[in-house]
Design brief:
The two termini are 48 Å apart. The protein is α/β, with parallel strands linked by helices. Strand 8, helix 8 and strand 9 form a beta-alpha-beta unit. It is built from 24 helices and 11 strands. It folds into 4 domains: 89 residues, no CATH class; 216 residues, P-loop containing nucleotide triphosphate hydrolases (Rossmann fold); 86 residues, no CATH class; 132 residues, no CATH class.
């Protein structure tokens, strides 16, 4: 079971809970409170990884390496009393939380030293309680949450108390020491304090690139010997790493260098613990709680079906390869966390708005344009209201009165005949179609222009431009792929768009769980905007997309693709 499979099972539990809720009476039933409590547990699910160690051991470098992003500032000497947390955010930001203030303060990450160092905040006169850093990094989105405790070895008693306060909340501790002076007195003291808690501890010896392999083995033996004094035969796992080399390898995508850094072994150990113990145990507990609720309901066919579904979710999982690093989830495309909406929609909307700004003025002062508008029968009904959004009442009156005169003339002409079929034929000509509407022509031309531009970009530099694509709406996505004559490129675009759709779906499911668990404050910006972004991805902008379109020249050989309405397809 990997992280994606874990989340799939968690979302499945949420779907089952919704179905269970439909089977529970609306009023006077305590089961509804139990169901909401389960939603709250799903919403709050996260893996707390608490880092401890002395200053200058490389804790921040280790976090950067695990995240695969050089975003957390290194070399900053923090205050002893400030806890730093690193979690997911749709955009990069840092938030200061105070002991004596209700309101938090957002600051740039680059400005951290002005608030959390002894030099700029002596004795913590600003009364900062915690620093919360949010980063748009995929592994954090999957539920990892780093807690960086104060460095050991400065104000020892205060540090110990601060760290011990996190013992109940930690899913695992990572003690970071280094080869230059492994296992200080303060670090050994931490082991003695943490050992009775039973929490999992990982020991990391950092900076192994600074010593020879022989000295490395000597230091590892020294650490094992001292840990056995505290833990006996069951000493915590020890990992030899170079966090700076690991980060460099991830940023350069150098797999050989990454292996030499030792980081993959540490990450496999953390993932294995997370998935085989913490997360699967969580799923099993959730499944048991859902079963208990189902057993209290009448055993009708629907309840029996839900019982079978929850049993399937709780089935043991097969082992999967955990060789991927934290920053490289399977099938991932970079940059999906902050995709703008459809670039083709944006181009068309800009072109239409630019046209409207000029045209609404032209039909006021230009009689020829007024007559042309009347001859075409005006705009199509959809674009009438787009014109109204840009024009003033005066402009509408001055520009459209000839159209109304023309329509009145057609009606009088139709009224002059006694033949009902001729009357019907005249009425059918009143409404302009897409070929008559000048704004439809502007839209179609802008779409062809944007799709051709995107197609050419993708053909020139597939890898870079594929990652640079926006969240293209489904109508324009179909047009774009239909314009491509390179099968390999078309398949790559399909894979990438499938990843976008899945990501948006995950955001929507997360938001729904947090909403149902009354934990909306936990939702990221991506999750709170998921509904709107998903509709834009499916349908595009309302002022751009509507059916039918007459057709589009979609490639250099003049191939034509058409989007027809469902009604026209049926007929």
């Amino acid at each position: 079971m990997d992280l994606h499979e874990y989340e799939r099972r968690k979302f499945a539990i949420a779907e089952i809970l919704r179905s269970v809720s439909a089977c529970v009476p609306e009023v006077g039933n305590e089961l509804r409170a139990h169901i909401q409590d389960l939603f709250a547990r799903l919403a709050e699910d996260r893996f707390n990884l608490v880092l401890v160690g002395r200053f200058n051991r490389g804790k921040t470098s280790l976090m950067n390496s695990i995240l695969g992003a050089d975003r957390l500032p290194t070399g900053v000497i923090p205050l002893t009393s400030v806890i730093t947390t690193v979690g997911y955010g749709s955009k990069e930001r840092a938030i200061l939380k105070y002991d004596n203030r209700i309101l938090d303060k957002e600051i740039p990450i680059a400005a951290l030293s002005q608030h959390i160092t002894q030099q700029n905040n002596p004795g913590n006169v600003q009364r900062i309680k915690t620093l919360e850093i949010q980063l748009p990094v995929e592994i954090l989105r999957r539920g990892f949450y780093f807690v960086d405790t104060p460095g050991l070895g400065s104000v020892i008693v205060e540090n110990t108390l601060t760290t011990e306060a996190f013992l109940p909340e930690a899913d695992a501790f990572v003690l970071v020491t280094s080869y230059d002076s492994p296992l200080s007195e303060e670090e050994v003291r931490f082991f003695r304090a943490a050992a009775p808690s039973g929490q999992r501890i990982f020991v990391v010896l950092n900076k192994h690139d600074t010593i020879t392999p022989e000295h490395r083995e000597t230091a590892l033996a020294f650490v094992r010997e001292h840990l056995s004094i505290v833990f006996g035969q069951t000493i915590p796992p020890i990992f030899s790493v170079s966090a700076t080399v690991g980060l460099k390898a991830k940023l350069s995508k150098d797999r050989v260098l990454l292996s030499a850094s030792g980081m993959p072994d540490l990450e496999r150990g953390l993932l294995d613990f997370l998935l085989t113990q913490k997360r699967f145990e969580f799923l099993l507990r959730m499944c048991d709680r859902v079963r208990r609720i189902l057993r209290e309901l009448p055993q009708i066919p629907e309840v029996e079906r839900l019982m079978r579904r929850i049993d399937a979710v709780g089935q043991p999982h097969g082992r999967k390869d955990l060789a991927r690093t934290f920053s490289e989830p399977a099938g991932a495309f970079p940059g999906l966390h902050q995709l703008p909406s459809c670039e083709i929609c944006a181009h068309v909307a800009d072109k239409i708005w630019s046209f409207l700004c000029n045209y609404q003025h032209d039909i006021i002062i230009n009689n020829v344009e007024q007559e042309n508008l009347a001859d075409r029968g005006g705009f199509c009904p959809f674009h009438v209201w787009q014109f109204q959004s840009a024009a003033s009442p005066y402009g509408i009156c001055a520009g459209h009165s000839p159209l109304l005169d023309r329509l009145a003339m057609i009606l009088r002409g139709a009224a002059s005949t006694a033949d009902l079929r001729q009357i019907h034929a005249q009425l059918e000509k009143l409404l302009p179609d897409q070929q008559d509407c000048i704004m439809c022509s502007v839209r179609d031309s802008a779409e062809r222009e944007a799709i051709e531009s995107t197609r050419r970009r993708l053909g020139q530099d597939k890898a870079r431009e594929l990652n640079a694509l926006t969240a293209i709406c489904l109508p324009h996505f179909i047009m774009l792929v239909s314009s491509i004559r390179d099968a390999e490129l078309a398949r790559a675009i399909l894979q990438r768009h499938a990843a976008v759709l899945e990501r948006y779906s995950e955001d929507m499911k997360r938001y729904a769980i947090k909403h149902e668990g009354v934990r909306r404050y936990l939702a990221s910006e991506e999750e709170t905007t998921a509904a709107e972004r998903a509709l834009l991805l499916i349908a595009g902008r309302r002022q751009v997309n509507f059916l039918p379109r007459q057709g589009h020249t979609s490639s250099d050989d003049g191939a034509v693709t058409k989007l027809r309405s469902r009604k026209s397809q049926e007929t």
